[in-house]
Amino acid sequence: MHACVCLVFITIIMATIFSRIVAGEIPSYKVAESEKFFAFLDINPLVKGHTLVIPKQEVDYIFDLNDEDLAMMHVFAKKVALAISKAFPCKKVGMAVLGLEVPHAHIHLIPMQSEKDMLFSNPKLKLSDDEFKAIAEAIQAAL
Asked: Which of 49, 38, 129 is nearest to 82 (CA)?
């Protein structure tokens, strides 16, 4: 009888930090949530109100989303952006898709007084837990 040696390779897929936030494993300052999308404050904000919008589906590149989900994500982001502009009066809410720092598609929504507010090389704000909570509550109240 011949012995058969079979090797089984198990791939462990680590959830992204954003998936762990959606799952409640990592705390966040949630702003809004739907069945497919989640919005929360960036913990390294450029300005007060800087919010991230993500799909709950873990996908690295935003353009890998199917057309319907991509469109729905932008509609969800629009609702959040309108609430941000009510909570933090600004000229516009800028939108940026960079996505290199976390392998999970996301949209940055940033209240702008000028285009300089969108420079990611700017120093990030250092906010207290109470300040983050107040910002999230202000945006939630405007939804």
From this structure: 49
Instruction: Report the largest interatomic distance among the alpha carbons of the chain, rounded to a whole angstrom.
Output: 78
DSSP secondary-structure letter at 72?
H
CA distance 81 to 76: 9
pTM over 0.85: yes
Beta-carbon contacts of 67 under 8 Å, excluding residues fewer than 6 positions away, are: none
Residues with catalytic annotation?
Answer: 106
* Domain definitions of the chain by residue range: 17-142
Tell me the mean pLDDT per 10 residues along the chain, length 143. 44 77 97 98 98 97 97 98 98 92 95 97 97 98 98
Q: Which residues, including other chains, have CB under 8 Å from residue 130's CB and lie 6 or more apart?
A: none
Q: Report which secondary-structure segment, H or E, holds 33.
A: strand 30-33
Q: What mean pLDDT, rounded, does the chain reach?
A: 92
3-class state of residue 51 by DSSP: strand
CATH H-level superfamily of 17-142: HIT-like (3.30.428.10)
pLDDT tens digits for range 72-84: 999 999 999 999 9
